[in-house]
């Protein structure tokens, strides 16, 4: 799975989990003593998904940055070679 798709999956999963936790909290208003802990676990899971989304984006940007550095070095080297050829002529 591509990293952009994975980041979007984590993002939407966190939204869905937050909505589900909110609905669960209000639907089981005073019926269940486990309402609050389950809601908090849902929120913690949503935060984990958000954290994974940001981590995935960070890794994606780091890889792109490394590719750009390699391309810049290659292009700089080519420019230097062209300047040498022009100076020799």
What can you tell me about this protein's structure?
The protein has two helices and no strands. By secondary structure, the chain is mainly alpha-helical. The protein starts with a helix and ends with a helix.
Terminal Cα separation, in Å? 51 Å
Beta strand %: under 5%
Count all strands and give the number: 0
Can you give the mean pLDDT? 91
The major sheet is characterized as: none
- Tally of helical segments: 2
Task: Give keywords.
89 residues; 2 helices; 0% strand
Blueprint of the fold:
Blueprint (H helix, E strand, L loop, with lengths): L2 H25 L7 H54 L1
What's this entry about, in short?
With 89 residues, this protein is an all-alpha fold.
